[in-house]
Amino acid sequence: MVDEIRLTGLGKRFNGRWLFRHVKCQWKKGDRIAIIGSNGSGKSSLTAIIAGYMMPSEGDVVLCNNGQTIAEHEVWKHISWTSPALELPEQMSYLELFEQVKVMRGFHASFSMDKMEEWMGLTPFRNQPLKSFSSGMRQRVKLILAFAVQSDVLILDEPTAHLDQQGIAWFAALIKEAQQSFIFVASNSNADETFFCNQTFDVTTCDRV
């Protein structure tokens, strides 16, 4: 189990411009971290790097268990991540997707297939292809999978994007079901997304040269 996460000298550069540099942080089990910043500040890139879906230009992300570094090729087993940029397999139904992910990763004990369907409120659409879903419905599918997958670290990039007020209330209830030891949220300082966080990291304060 992941009980510590360290960023050491982390930096990311796009098209010759540094989004951030020299990021040095340490988080412990139980931390809920809001990574905030304006559009284009690099908050989504930072969360994608922590998730292992994007490579840094410099520095490292280190996950530890009892003081021992988790091997790089094992890190993916400990992380679940979702983002508005994440694509869903459009020809699948959400039920087919759930079944496939369950085989590949497994779900936390509190997330049965029936409970996931109940939580989403999309049971009438269980056999429809995901390409027919609205952006809000797709976001619900992404979020429920991120929470359900067996992982120690949950990383959410703008989780209330495309959600209406009912969906935002649903997200707030879903947070209470989280089983992960760490939760990261990338947000434009949106209280609907960061209300449960006990730490804040502002990407705009990072070095950019």
Structure, explained:
The protein is of the alpha/beta class and 209 residues long. The chain contains six helices and nine strands. A five-stranded parallel sheet has the order 6-7-8-3-9, with helices on both faces. It has a four-stranded antiparallel sheet with strand order 2-1-4-5, covered by helices on one side. The radius of gyration is 17 Å and the shape is globular.
Concise structural overview:
This protein is 28% helix and 27% strand. It has 209 residues and is an alpha/beta fold. A five-stranded parallel β-sheet has the order 6-7-8-3-9, with helices on both faces.
Helix and strand element order: EEEHEEEHHHEHEHE
Helix content, binned percent? 25-40%
**Average pLDDT for all residues:** 94
- Distance from N terminus to C terminus (CA atoms, Å) equals 36 Å
SSE-based structural type: alpha/beta
Based on CA inertia axes, which overall geometry fits? globular
Determine the number of helices (DSSP H or I, runs of at least 4 residues).
Answer: 6
The poorly predicted ranges are none
Q: Give a quick account of the main beta sheet: strands, pairing sense, barrel closure.
A: 5 strands, parallel
Q: What's the Cα radius of gyration?
A: 17 Å
